[in-house]
Specification:
Distance between the termini: 24 Å
Strand content: 25-35%
Number of domains: 1
Order of helices and strands: EHEEEEEH
Strand order of the largest sheet: 5-2-1-6
Structural class: alpha/beta
Shape: globular
Number of strands: 6
CATH class: Alpha Beta
Largest sheet: 4 strands, parallel
CATH architecture: 3-Layer(aba) Sandwich
CATH superfamily: NAD(P)-binding Rossmann-like Domain
Length: 95
């Protein structure tokens, strides 16, 4: 498996969602995690798992997994991207 084929993104704010959509539209498999206290960022994605991208990148992007349970994204990924504010990077690294 080559790098950047199956990606877990930690952080489901604007940056995480934009990165996820861009990568999916490039043909990558992407799962999206958000910390439980910010899981409202996932509310519109829990059922549909679909991101709509418009602008420089356009299209519908379907996520593999959408979760606020960190253990659900820990296996089977070749790359993990942290798309959180800098103050949360240490926390993401510990998980």
């Amino acid at each position: 498996m080559s790098i950047l084929e199956h990606i877990a993104i930690i952080g489901a704010g604007s940056g995480g969602k934009a990165a996820a959509a861009d990568l999916i539209l490039q043909g990558k498999k992407v799962s999206l995690f958000e910390f439980p206290e910010y899981k409202e960022n996932l509310a519109d994605l829990l059922e549909s798992k679909t991101l709509i991208a418009s602008g420089a990148v356009e299209g519908e992007a379907t996520l593999e997994v959408v979760t606020s349970e960190i253990h659900e994204i820990m296996d089977g990924f070749d790359t993990v991207m942290i798309c959180t504010q800098a103050l949360a990077h240490d926390r993401a690294a510990v998980n």
